[in-house]
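Batch 3, record 17
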Amino acid sequence: MLTNIGSFQQTSSVLKRLNWVIILVVFSFVIELVGLFLSSNLLVENFSSIHMSNRLFDATVTTSESLEGAMTTLNKASTERTHLGDLYRVYQANYAQAHDSIDSALQMSNDSAGINNHLKKLKEKLETFNTSSNHIFSQEEPTPMYFSGNVDLLVAQEYKLELDELLRKTQLLVKEEGANAFETVYRLRYLPLLVTLLITFFCVSFTILTGGAIIRRLRKSVDNLMEATKVVVGGNLSYHAKIIENDELGWFTFAFNQMIEKVAQLYQEARYAVQIRDDFLSIASHELRTPITPLKLQIQSIIRLVKQGRLAQLPPEQILKMLSITDLQISRLTKLTDDLLDVTRITSGKIDLRKERADISKMMSEIITKIRSELYAQKYEITMNLQPGLFVEMDLSRIEQVFTNLLSNAMKYGEGKPIEVTTSRTDPHSIEVRVQDHGQGIALADQERIFGRFERAAPSANFGGLGLGLYIVKQIVEQHLGTVRVESSLGDGSAFIVSLPSEMAVKQ
Amino acid sequence: MIQEIRKILIIDDDVAIRTSLQQILEFEGYTALCAQNGKEGLALAKEHLPNLILLDMMMPEMNGQQFLEVWEKEEILSTIPVIVLSVSKLDGKLTSKVKKINKPVDLDVLFKTISESIRG
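Prediction for the assembled complex:
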């Protein structure tokens, strides 16, 4: 049985899985960038450490030179005692330079506690040195050499020595730090490359593994679908492809199965239609040939009698009988060809209705009069229950064809039991004509089918005809916007009920 | 001269064919019996033992094929020659006892085959 395409539950997605691969690649790239940045940053920090050490060292050198300058000025001042103002300015400049250098070095060395401490001590010492040195310039007269001599100068020299010692220690520290930083840089020179390679390796491996797994799963589904296609192309329409995964390809497989089911069903229907047509053609050729046999027999018989000069000896009733058989066969042929022509016209929609208002009960009684001899020949009793004044807009010849067909069916299948024809108004907008027989009846299973083209409930070997009658009836009635239905059960006879639109006459 | 009345049994479901054949055969001096189907035909054949059977193939109740199957087995019947009148081709073999004429029947062919069958 066909199931709806909607019944397929898609629980996974090929496209989403592929998206994950892309996300994985992008994520790997980001991780790689972060790793590269962090490892490079380590090197850059150490490089700036080296740079800082250099600048610190330069600052200590400047401090040392300025101190030397200041000391020279102090010597000059204390020995010569002239131009004190100028010398003081020179001293001041040298001191300021030394002081600034230490300040800037202090700022630079915030990260290194050891160097910073040394510099702080250096700064204190320098300021003490300056206080004592200022004494040298503040004295009006030079102190006698033997007495205090240049006590201040001696003090200053002492300080200078201490300062030099401190500077040397600081420089050593700075150099050590610089060397350490350089060593670190040297040691870590391959780190960024290593980090990048490592992360790349892991990411690429992971991506290949994940992607490979996805491709393997996809391949399984695709191969399965391709195999199914091959089998179906090979002509096996009953093949059912296995659904491997409930993803898009699973959906395709599901839809593919449904498609094949549909194709198989259509193929069966087409085969059935061809079978029906073939059956019809063989029935039609048999039916068309059947009247030709007596026709030919009769005509050849007459020719034979004429040739033998025996025709004149025959009684007129005998000749009349022969001719009427001939005439009847021509009518049979005409009816068959008319039916075939009607079906062709109906199928191609070429039936033109020439409608006029007429009394259906009157028409029924006329039809029955026309076929009365036939009814009599087949020993049928007919009961009419016709309500007068039922006017219908209809094509007279077509509607007559409808009831002639229904009545001839009733005679064909009625097994000689009475036939009843009833006309009645069912509601203000429609009337009904009922043709009831008491023959073999029609099984419920066949009641729909008999209105189809080339269809019949009874096997064609038992009853003549093309099986077109009810099809034509239904088409004509429907063209009159009416309906035809059958009420029947096996052994109980059948009633064919034609309902046609008819407006109730308004009383004047 | 001994006038032997030859009896021919016509088995066909079509009333026009039956009537026509009966009338034509009677013109020729045969006695014609009519049956609507194989079953009726079988009963008439056993009762009257005709000289010849004209048999249609497609019939209700008992068709020509089924009739031939019974005819073959019954000793009294199998001596009676049969001419099959059919539009369809005959399943099973044709023998000297079973001949076939295609419908629509040509009268000359029919008479020729009838006299051949009765004599043979």
